[in-house]
Input
Amino acid sequence: PRLASALGDRLEEAEALTEEDVALYGSPRGVLYRPDSAGDDKKPAEKKKKAAGRKGKGGTSLEDEEWEAQVKRDLAKKKKAAAAASSSSSEKALTAADKEELARQTSRRDELASVLDRGLSRALAAVRSLCESDIEVGNSCLP
Output
């Protein structure tokens, strides 16, 4: 009963995490996490429907042009992120507000690590060990 309740509690904690929490957890430590708020890719299915069948410049379809534009945007984001990572890695480049936000993010990363790395992993390891062991109940052995 204690193992089941512990596992249930850890699963509830993990399910309560948002996409932003997971992205923050996956971001590198010591680097200020800034969520992407561009919103360009919110409804790609609608863009595809509008672009289907129409022709753009030089006889290429608008889908091809959109794909090229998306690739260019992705490359620009990567270059910008690389430049930001190299400039933000030095403490002198961060403002006081950025340092405060970085401290909040670091503490939140620690909370997320305790939920995902410690609590949930420990409960799942206990269940795995229980399943792999031969436990005798009465005169029979559980599979």
User: Anything to note?
Assistant: The chain is about 65% helix and 5% strand. The helical segments are 2-15, 19-26, 44-51, 62-88, 96-132.
